[in-house]
Amino acid sequence: MILLSRFFIIDLFIVRLSMACKIAIFNMKGGVGKSTTAYNLAAGLVQSHNQRVLLIDTDPQGHSGAALGLPIWEIQAQLKDVFQGQISIHQAITSTSSGVDVVPSNIQLAEEEIPISGRPGRERLLQKAIKSVTDQYDFILIDCPPNIGVFSVNALMACDGVLIPVDMSYLGLMSIQGIERALKLIREELEHPIQIVGVLATRFDKRNKLSKEAFESLHEHFGDQLLQTVIPETVRLREAPSFGQSIFEYDPKGNGSRAYKVILDEVMVWQSRNQNVQH
Ligand SMILES: Nc1ncnc2c1ncn2[C@@H]1O[C@H](COP(=O)(O)OP(=O)(O)OP(=O)(O)O)[C@@H](O)[C@H]1O
Ligand SMILES: [Mg+2]
Questions:
Q1: Is the Cβ–Cβ distance between 52 and 136 less than 8 Å?
Q2: Ligand 1 mutation pick, 26, 35, 141, 236, max ligand atoms within 8 A of CB
Q3: pLDDT, position 17
Q4: Nearest of 256, 260, 28 to residue 162 by alpha carbon
Q5: What is the pTM of this model?
Q6: Which of 2, 34, 45, 170 would be 51's cystine partner, CB 3.0–4.6 Å?
Q7: Is 6 among the domain residues?
Q8: 35 lies in some domain
């Protein structure tokens, strides 16, 4: 009996360990570096940490898939088809040369927003859809659109944690209130206990006083939740997608690469802490 229960515990442990850590990259403000963070982290987790990573694009702009070299206007299967119930998430997965598996999107996803909004259980469609693949990945990263519409809500409801890129600008700081309201809605109204993986200062220009002031304001507000490493404003990060490459491939020794490497480590630490909490 004791032996049996030991096996059961070990079994449970293995099952839990093989569940993907799910992280949404979210901010309601546009242009803060959500997609840049999502696809670079995804590629880095595969290439530097040997992780199995699925990147899901819930933004009809389709930038995550495009940046990893997918021809998003010609894709055969995409997230929209999963929401429509036409295919399983498994059938919507495309592999990329970076080693990251992607569930891509394009503008057709936008046409699904109104139909989905009227469906019962609309907030948990993605949470349900990814259940069948969580044991096949170490990480599932979800890139969000710049709003708190039905796709962002689905992304947040499907995830254990949220990484929040905030750009170093006055409007960037203004976005914080909206983000906190959104997370309150997820936690209290929808009863989903999502955690903050970290707040990430992006587009940091060290020559600019505003960047330093914005970083200090973020620190006052978020304390330890603000990641100490900032993502610098660098043209290399802007150029990399046009080669279908991550920053680690395009400019491995540059500032952008160095900064995102530290964030990769932070994400790995969060994953192991999160797994320990689950046990
Ligand atoms: N640190 C950076 N330095 C220079 N350019 C950057 C940086 N981060 C992002 N960019 C560029 O800024 C633009 C917006 O970035 P990105 O698409 O990642 O933001 P986003 O938050 O996903 O935007 P959206 O809300 O529209 O989806 C892109 O052209 C990107 O290449
Ligand atoms: Mg984006």
A1: yes
A2: 35
A3: 52
A4: 28
A5: 0.93
A6: 45
A7: no
A8: yes
